[in-house]
Write a structure and sequence with these properties.
With 429 residues, this protein is mostly helical. The protein has 22 helices and no strands. The N and C termini lie far apart (44 Å).
């Protein structure tokens, strides 16, 4: 009875638009209100929330957010885009491909899908429009490519999955490299097909190329090389064992400050205060959601939800393939209505034991989960990347959604490959 009431209230609160953190808190307290003997009373929930966020690995999240904000304010994405554009601008789909590569590199700095979409889209959408590409295509491209930001390491969702599952975050980062590259490549293939079919304005593209050439390869190279080194330094320090993911996040903060404040001089001391305020504002919301999701997951355990779902799933499916298809469909639907952080923290304790019984490696499942939820960034009604892209481009949501469909299909093709070919996730470990 408690579970039914919690489920109904959870769905109703989400539908009427109550913030997810508040929804998780309220529904966590409902069973104890109905039955005072239920073990998860308010005091227990508060202790669970505090102990849940009192974690060293989670400290990496605000550091990566801070680093990403510094890079965005310092216009690092512009320097990365100019570098890749210089070499591919006159090729078929050259500029769209440069946008995708920029999203991949910037994602390796920020670890966030919406942040990648905002930072890269603000700069590249006007350039693509100036080069003759349709604005709805350019906006959809950036919105979907921004989702790679949570797959290419370092990734904030991987940190949360590692926290919820106990899996090594460093190994998750390594496992995310090949899937992230494959998704980027699939988006490039569709961009090439689109440009080949619809044509490009070569005159405008050559005009933009001339501007790049006038800037000079030497200037573009020296402006961008230090930016390109950032993800290499961060990931290299993790993979070589020099630093943990949290320590690497701190390294990325200092590196981005030195780069933007001293080398490029694209921000000033006063800007750092604004960036810190913005980081605290962003992370405080995430931190509350993390705490609420942890409390809610504890309540679900007391309600024996993992056992109930496990029994129902095993009664329906008898093979690993059927289970993976079912889990993918579930995660795709969840990604449409729930933010990545609470989805990972709530569903990981429920689904991981089930898939583990069928022989799915926890690291591979982490990749599957994050890729599914990354697709949720560009699928209504939540579609955070869609809202961000629409805001910065003034293109209607409906136009972005319709233009995003082929990109999302490319995403799904890679998801299927990751799901049924474990080596794609495990070979880099």
């Amino acid at each position: 009875m408690n579970l039914q009431i919690v489920s109904i209230l959870f769905v109703i609160f989400l539908i009427i638009g109550i913030p997810i953190g508040v929804v998780l808190c309220i529904t966590s307290m409902v069973p104890n209100f109905i039955n005072p003997l239920f073990p998860a009373d308010p005091q227990y929930l508060v202790r669970a929330m505090i102990s849940g966020v009192n974690s060293f690995p989670i400290l990496a999240v605000p550091m990566f957010i801070f680093s990403g904000n510094i890079m965005a304010k310092g216009k690092i994405s512009e320097k990365i885009f100019d570098f890749f554009s210089y070499f591919v601008v006159d090729k078929t789909a050259g500029l769209p491909i440069a946008v995708i590569i920029t999203c991949m590199f910037y994602g390796a700095i920020s670890g966030s899908g919406p942040a990648t979409t905002a930072a890269v889209g603000t700069m590249t959408i006007p350039i693509l429009a100036k080069a003759g590409y349709k604005k709805d295509f350019s906006t959809a491209l950036v919105a979907v490519a921004g989702g790679i930001g949570v797959i290419i390491p370092p990734s904030i969702p991987f940190i949360f999955y590692g926290q919820a599952s106990g899996v090594s975050i460093s190994k998750l980062f390594m496992a995310g490299i090949i899937p992230g590259l494959l998704i980027g490549f699939s988006l490039m293939v569709y961009s090439w097909i689109y440009c080949k079919k619809n044509g490009e304005d070569k005159e405008l593209i050559l005009k933009y190329k001339k501007e790049l050439i006038e800037s000079g390869l030497k200037r573009i190279f020296f402006d961008s090389v230090l930016s390109l080194l950032c993800p290499i330094i961060v990931l290299g320090s993790i993979y070589t064992g020099i630093a943990s993911p949290t320590e690497a996040a701190v390294i990325s903060v200092f590196y981005s400050i030195i780069l933007s404040l001293i080398v490029y001089k694209s921000i000033g001391i006063k800007d750092l205060w604004e960036i810190m305020v913005e980081t605290v504002r962003t992370y405080s919301t995430i931190l509350f959601i993390i705490a609420a999701a942890i409390a809610f997951s504890r309540v679900l355990i007391f309600l024996k939800v993992p056992d109930i779902i496990s029994t129902q799933i095993t009664a329906v499916v008898s093979s690993k393939i059927a289970l993976l298809i079912l889990v993918n469909l579930l995660l795709l639907m969840v990604g449409m209505i729930m933010d990545t952080t609470p989805a990972i923290l709530v569903l990981t304790p429920i689904l991981l034991p089930i898939v583990s019984r069928f022989g799915v490696d926890p690291i591979q499942f982490g990749i599957i989960m994050v890729v599914n939820l990354a697709i949720g960034f560009v699928t209504p009604p939540l579609g955070v990347n869609l809202f961000v892209a629409s805001t910065i481009s003034d293109v209607k949501m409906s136009d972005i959604v319709s233009r995003s469909v082929p990109f999302i299909i490319s995403f799904l093709v890679v998801l299927l490959a990751i799901t049924f070919i474990p080596a794609l996730s495990m070979i880099a470990i």
